[in-house]
Amino acid sequence: MLDIPPLRIGHGHDIHALFDGEPLCLGGVLIDSAKRGFRTHSDGDVLSYS
User: Which segments cross the bilayer (predicted)?
Assistant: First the structure.
């Protein structure tokens, strides 16, 4: 039988474009002063979904 370690680490990437007039939310905090934000439907808070 294989000896598989209990912890595995991987990596990935994702791309989110910024658009004028969209809300910017990072870590669950809405940044009111931002002029651009992410146009998305499910994973727009890039900090929370990282």
Answer: none
Bridge-based pairing of strands 18-20 and 36-38 is antiparallel
CB 19 within 8 A of CB 38: yes
DSSP string, 13-35: -----EEET---EETTEE-TT-S
Q: Which of 34, 15, 14 shows the shortest CA–CA distance to 24?
A: 34
pTM of the model: 0.58
Domain positions in the chain are 17-50
Is the pLDDT at 3 greater than 70, yes or no?
yes
